[in-house]
Amino acid sequence: MVDLSGNGAVSPGHTRHGQGSGNTGKKTSKKSRTKRGKRGRKRRNKKNIRNNKTPPPYFPPEAEEGNIEYKLKLVNPTQYRFEHLATQLKWRLQEGRGEAVYQIGVEDNGLLVGLTEADMRASLKTLKRMAEKVGADITLLREREVDYDLDRNTRKIAEVLVRKVPDDQQFLDLRVAVLGNVDSGKSTLLGVLTQGELDNGRGRARLNLFRHLHEIQTGRTSSISFEILGFNSKGEVVNYSESRTAEEICESSSKMITFIDLAGHHKYLKTTIFGLTSYCPDFAMLVVSANTGIAGTTREHLGLAMALKVPIFIVVSKVDLCSRGTVDRTVRQLERLLKQPGCNKLPLLVSGPDDAVTAAQQFTQSECITPIFTLSSVSGESLELLKVFLNILPPLSNSKEQEELMQQLTEFQVDEIYSVPDVGTVVGGTLYSGVCREGERLVVGPTDEGRFLRLKVGSIQRNRSACRVLRAGQAATLALGNFDRSLLRKGMVMVSPKMNPTICCQFEAAIVLLFHAKTFRRGSQVTVHVGNVRQTATVECLHGKDELRTGERAVVRFCFIKHPEYLRLGAKLLFREGVTKGIGHVTRLLPPSQNHDQNQNHDQNLQKEH
């Protein structure tokens, strides 16, 4: 890589000095050369800072896969070249599931060359024509000047977001779990984002989000609720502000953010864990109150998101209630926590639109980047920065991974069960794999006896509007007609009859014990969370160990105490009981017949010992 900053250059004078004094005082001349070199570098660095030469001369080289494309310029292409460029754009949009980012004025190797004003205008015009051809819109995210003293003309690079116009409900859908301590302003922030009106300082914005009377009376969320925020193909916010219905928001949006509002109070922790494990959020938003700082369940929620490997960004709310010094103290507190050995995160404070764009792009590329926003739901301070971030935030999975999941057999996780007048039994959840259509015949289970029951899918609703086809990774509600609701429970799965699903009462998992007051041994009972499964299980045995202490690892066999469950090998596992907490993944499933044989052998061994 060529050093364009000039920091690595050595002046001819230094060389002559070294040559002339080579025999008489090597140590002295070497020291003096070093000092002069350092002073020269400092002078050049100061000059570069004064000239505002902060942009790096290189981006990483362009990747063949992914949704980011580098283009040096797009000035007056021939018809053949234009067709080729449009096909290339279509590929990038497909890779980004409807979104692509074009860097104009950048060579394929990542060198920031920049374009003159006239060339940039012509290139953006061509890009707009390309987008129109493939049914998309463009949004200019930012322009930056590139000046390396190569000539006196100002050259710029432009970053452009290209997004497909929505068609047949095939918008990009990202799920964001909202975490944070009680009274940190989670529901109020969601109310302001989705309703389009600022809060009055007394929680008016959150009233539409509550599902129960006691939540309205106490102002505390105790259940899981879903809120939607849309962005159209031009990057404009689409919400309920203009008396739109949920169906209108879905129709107008190319990208949808589904917020999963979780409970902050410690006594509703099991509900919060269920929301994180069952609804498969793409990202987590941790809300911290500026005036109270890191308090209550904040650390616990951060730990849960990290244990489940959910990328997290932080919002410091209520900055209108306290001084700038208090806000800075809370941010410093968060930065210290994130940099601790257990977290190993790199905090990125977002203070302007440029930071928001950078944060959104780096957030998904690097696991350690954690953006921090400071805002107010009452004054609206810095609220736009969060919207810019959410608008640009790319999906974690690419189109190839999505296609692979869709090729598999249908598997739908049952998270919620309702009885709706004139509709019948309705189940809500997430389609883990395959494709589900109206009228499709599936089997649901396992029941308490370990059986699967046949049923037929009636209608499908996604984000409160009718949908004909459900694809892998999407959340929806399915109407099951007259199917008996009493036969259903949370934690069941609806799968294709071709799948021949395996169920188990016992399973083995490789775990790490995060915390235990004493020791963790055979006979301990814990609440196990695996995906949408939540049930109490007994520790049957610890392979190779008699007991576990905090921080230790082992392969453990668990046994469900009530009924068998459907689990997947490799699924993330989280267990808890009081202050006891642990994480791990499923390594082996033991079918019911095998469980019975192993239990008999285990009892015989115990009798021999006695």
TrEMBL record:
Q: What organism is this sequence from?
A: Eleginops maclovinus (Patagonian blennie)
Stretches of Low complexity bias are at: 594-604
Q: Give every Tr-type G domain span.
A: 171-399
Record keyword Lipoprotein present:
no
- Region of interest (Disordered), residue spans: 1-63, 587-610
Its keywords, alphabetically, are: GTP-binding, Nucleotide-binding
**UniProt lineage:** Eukaryota, Metazoa, Chordata, Craniata, Vertebrata
According to its UniProt record, which protein family does this protein belong to? Answer: Belongs to the TRAFAC class translation factor GTPase superfamily. Classic translation factor GTPase family. EF-Tu/EF-1A subfamily.
Pfam families in UniProt: GTP_EFTU, GTP_EFTU_D2
Q: Does the record carry GTP-binding as a key word?
A: yes
Recorded protein name is Tr-type G domain-containing protein
Please give the Gene Ontology molecular function terms for this protein: GTP binding; GTPase activity; translation elongation factor activity
Q: Which residue stretches does the UniProt record annotate as biased composition, category Basic residues?
A: 27-50
